[in-house]
Amino acid sequence: MAPNLTADARSATVTRSFRFDAEMSKILDEEAERMGVSVNALVGIILKRYSEFTRYLSKIDMIVLNRELLISLLEAKDEEYLYKLGAKLGGTVSVDTIMFWKKDVTEESVLEYIEKIICLYGHLGTYDEVSQPDSKTIVIRHRLGRKGSKFFEGYLRSTLKNTVGKDATFEVTDSSIKFEIRSSINNTE
Question: Comparing C-alpha atoms, which of 121, 111, 105 is closest to residue 46?
């Protein structure tokens, strides 16, 4: 099927027709109205999530977990243990996941993993990135408490080191983690 260019010509689209049962159509209508988007946009969001994430869930051995359960597990351990656990898992889980998901481990794919797998689709936090000519600053805001921040610090520091060989400067609070990585172009390491 040949793509139809959108009016602004920024991306190609394909027109498709789908059949839904009446109950599912009603749910899509209600959810689209609640979100303030068209049904077409909602279905696009759902299909994008499926294509970028859901279809990989079982292959990358991910599960859905209640946030309160996760917080309780984090609270049962001290910050040093959680940092070390994060560092250990960041050296294996992230590397394997990125390799399987993207087939190539680059700074871009690592940051996309953090943004999409951990934050957007994993619902562990919100991701914000600011790029400067010589660095990128990433802030992840979350609801996992100080111990969650320490786990994230270990996990993300190890992920960056074990995937793209980058060291980062970290700052943590009870509800956020901020890290800065130097650009490859100006990196003198």
Answer: 121
In this structure, whether the domain defined by 68-182 belongs to CATH 3.30.1380.20 is answered with yes
- In this predicted structure, what is the pLDDT of residue 186? 45
SS3 188: coil
Domain ranges of the chain: 4-52, 68-182
In sequence order, what are the beta bridge partners of 131?
136
pLDDT below 50 — which residues of the chain? Answer: 186-189
DSSP for 129-175, written as a single string? EEEETTEEEEEEE-SSHHHHHHHHHHHHHHHHHHHH----EEEE-SS
Which amino acid, residue 128? D
Rounded to the nearest angstrom, the gap between the alpha carbon of residue 57 and the centroid of all alpha carbons in its chain is 13
**DSSP code per residue over 56-89:** GTTTTT-----HHHHHHHHHTS-HHHHHHHHHHH
Q: Please state, in angstroms and rounded to a whole number, the distance separating the CA atoms of residues 62 and 53.
A: 10
Query: In angstroms, rounded to a whole number, what is the distance separating the alpha carbons of residues 48 and 55?
Result: 10
pLDDT at 57: 86
